[in-house]
Specification:
There is one protein chain. Helices cover about 0% and strands about 60% of the residues. It is mainly beta and about 80 residues long. The strands form three sheets. It has a three-stranded antiparallel sheet with strand order 1-2-3, with no helix packed on it. A three-stranded antiparallel sheet has the order 6-7-8, with no helix packed on it. The chain is elongated, with a radius of gyration of 14 Å. The chain starts with a strand and ends with a strand.
Length: about 80
């Protein structure tokens, strides 16, 4: 799985027949940047964030640097 710089989640989905299909989900309608914090219930986060990417460990996280109201970058990890 990956996330593009425009905030689109990309991954492969496997059907019952075992064939994979690429799937994309634009996260912008579901996530916003509220004063430097990634927040659900808002939209358009990618317009005010940089370094957007996915980070995996035991779980998958969306990571981005978001601009707050003062214009400073804030590190965010959402997941």
């Amino acid at each position: 799985m990956s996330v593009t710089a425009r905030g689109v989640l990309q991954g492969a989905c496997f059907g019952a027949n075992g064939i994979s299909t690429e799937a994309n989900l634009d996260l912008n309608p579901y996530l916003g940047n509220v004063d430097g914090s990634l927040t659900t219930g808002h939209s358009g986060f990618a317009r005010s964030c940089i370094n957007i990417h996915a980070k995996s460990g035991s779980d998958l996280f969306l990571v981005a640097d978001s601009y707050n109201a003062s214009g400073h970058l804030v590190y965010n990890s959402f997941g």
